[in-house]
Amino acid sequence: MRPVVTTLVGVGAVGVGGFAYAAGYEVRAFRLRRAEIPCLPTGRGPVKVLHVSDIHMMPSQRGKQRWLRSLADLGPDLVVNTGDNISHRDAVSAVTGALGDLLDLPGVFVLGSNDYWGPVMKNPLRYFQRNGGRKRLQGPQLPWRMLRDAFSEAGWQDLTNRRGEATVAGVRIAFTGVDDPHLGYDDLLAVSGPADPTADVRLGISHAPYLRVLDAYTAAGNEAIFAGHTHGGQVRVPGIGALVTNCDIDTRRSRGLHRHRVDEREAWLHVSAGCGTSPYAPYRFCCYPEATLVTLTARPAAGVGRQRGSGGETPAR
After folding, report:
1. Closest Cα partner for 29 from 279, 292, 276, 222?
2. Facing residues of 265 across strands?
3. 207: which DSSP letter?
4. Most buried of 24, 107, 148, 313, CB within 10 angstroms?
C-alpha cells in the first residue's frame, strides 16, 4: 500500500500546487497580446485597435484596475469592448475608472451575459455539454443600463443589434454589432444585408463567437470580426489547448487570430481570452488574462496575415 499512498500524495501535491499557481499567480499575471490584420485598402492605415473583453470587474480588484488604466499608454486609435465588463452590482464605477483615458478615445461596445446578470456558482462539468449547456437567467440583474449609458456618454458607440461608423486615423470603418448571442439576445435580422461597401473596412462585433453570427458577418462582407466570451478556455492543457469554449465554436479557435470561411467569403476572426474570470472560478491555467493590440494594415497582394503569439505577449507593468 505504501507505493499507492505515495503516488496519491504526490498527485494531490501536484494538484494543490497547480491550483495555487492558477488562482494565486496566473489569474493576476496580465498580458498584452499583439496581432496584425491586413484588411485595409492600399495606402491606408495603420490603425491600432485595442480589444478588451471579459473584464468581469469586482470593486476590490485594484490590480486589474491599475493594469487597465495603463493600456491607454499604448496610444490606440480605437477601442473595441466585447462585453462582460462587470461581475458585481457596484462595479460600474470601477470599470469606468479603470478604463480611464481610453473612454476619451473613439470606441465601440456590445454587452455580454455578465453585464446583464450576476454570476452564480455552476457545476464546471456543464461546460462540457454542447454550447455550455442550457442557458438560464440566473443571479441578480446587474446595472447594465448604467454601464451602457456611461460608455455612451463618454462617446463610445453602442452596437447592440445596430450598425455604426467612425473615421479613425484617416480610415472610415463601418461596424455591425449584435446583442449577446450566448443568451439568444442577438437580432441578426436587425443588421442584415451587406456591410457598407463605401467604407474602407468593415468590422463585425459580438460578445460570443457563435457560428450563426460569424457566418452572417462573413457573408455580409465584413473583413474582420472581434469577439470574446470564451476566456480562451480559461484552463488549457499543454500540448492540447482549450477543452471548452462555452459556445459552438471549435476549441482550436478559442483565442487569438484565425480565419472564418463561408462559401467563397473569408473574414479574420479575433477572439480575446479576456482579462477576468467569474468570482466563483477565480483561476486561469496556461491562459494568461489579456488584452490585445490589433493593428489593421493594408492588404498585401498575397493576402497573408501575421499574428504574434506568446512571443508577442507583454507582462503587466
Report:
1. 276
2. 262
3. S
4. 107
Which residue range is the domain that position 309 belongs to?
2-315
Tell me how far apart the alpha carbons of residues 255 and 268 are, in angstroms, rounded to a whole number.
13
CATH code for the domain of 193: 3.60.21
Cα torsion at 30, 36, 39, 41 (round to 10°)?
A: 120
Residues 6+ apart with CB under 8 A from 10: none
- For residue 310, the one-letter residue type is S
Phi and psi, residue 138, nearest 5°: -105, 165
Cα–Cα distance for residue pair 315/61, rounded to 1 Å? 18
DSSP H/E element including 293? strand 290-298
Radius of gyration of the chain (CA): 19
Per residue in 52-92, pLDDT (tens digit) is 999 999 999 999 999 999 999 999 999 999 999 999 999 99
Measured CA to CA, the distance from residue 2 to residue 308 in angstroms comes to 48
**Overall domain count for the chain:** 1
